[in-house]
Amino acid sequence: MAPFGLMTAGASWLAKSFSVFSSTSTLARCTSVLQATYITPVKCLTSQASGPPKRPLNGYLRFVIQQQPVITRHYPEIKSVDIIRKIAQQWRTLTAEQKKPFEEASRQAREQFKVDLQRYQALLTPAQLQQQIQERRQRLAKRRTIVKKRELTSLGKPKRGRTPLNIYISEHFEEARGLTTQEKMKSMVQDWRSLTSHQKQIYTQLAEDDKIRYKNEIRSWEDHMVEIGREDLVREKILPTKKKPATKAKAKTIKKGTKKGTKKVALKTVKKATAKKPTTSRKLTKG
């Protein structure tokens, strides 16, 4: 079965490709590549015997895997992204009868996937099943985080202020020691630690300025989010408070408590006064 990376890449390229190749000349050139001799019988891509079964590809991605070497042979000079775009254009020009072999293979693979999944889950222990559920929740949470981050980016949310170390790395990354990015980052962190406080002062001041920039931009951005009805993206501390009835009720209870407290104090003083009166009267009678 095709690796998951290819499947995700094909899906993302598909989303980008629908806005490309609108001219008739390009369409004619793309459709000429797809001929009857290039459409080979579609194999049913099954999952691996060991480990959890992988989800099958849909009809379009099966078509991509089949046509990619064909387009590469005809257009060896173009990039991989353009190859996928050409394949997407071909897929849109296919008739329902031409798409049927790919969709039928996908349907058979889905049925086989259900059988393989049941067989695999029957061999798992309860602890392994629980671990799979936890991993699935983590993947979904990560996916939701990515989706939310993309949404915030599309809405123009300003970037957070950079730290002094971030500013130092961005300015000296090119001349850093090391071949890979990880080696360069490690060497720059070591160089940052060896700097004196006076040398770090300029980056600290730049970080403070960037922090002020972020505060101003995030305030105006959140005001705009409130205007367009996206209060869910705004921090709670700038939203209008709606706890006035609760505060009034709390104030009433405090007043009642203070009244009860004063009453208790008054009762205690009366009791003390009454308790001392007999002693004074006894002293007077003795005298």
Query: Which band does the percent of strand residues land in?
Result: under 5%
Helicity range: over 70%
Distance between the termini: 114 Å
Q: Which CATH first-tier class of the domain at 4-126 would you pick?
A: Mainly Alpha
Number of helix segments? 10
Number of strands: 0
Task: Return the CATH topology of the domain at 4-126.
Answer: DNA Binding (I), subunit A
**Reported CATH architecture of the domain at 4-126:** Orthogonal Bundle
Which of globular, elongated, flat, extended, rod-shaped describes the shape? extended
Element pattern in H and E = HHHHHHHHHH
Q: Find the structural class using helix and strand composition.
A: mainly alpha
Q: What is the CATH superfamily classification of the domain at 4-126?
A: High mobility group box domain
- Rg over CA atoms: 36 Å
Query: Mind summarizing the main beta sheet?
Result: none
Mean pLDDT: 76
Low-confidence stretches: 1-8, 14-48, 279-287
Protein name: Transcription factor A, mitochondrial
InterPro entries: HMG_box_dom, HMG_box_dom_sf, HMGB
Organism: Eleginops maclovinus (Patagonian blennie)
Subcellular location: Mitochondrion matrix, Mitochondrion nucleoid
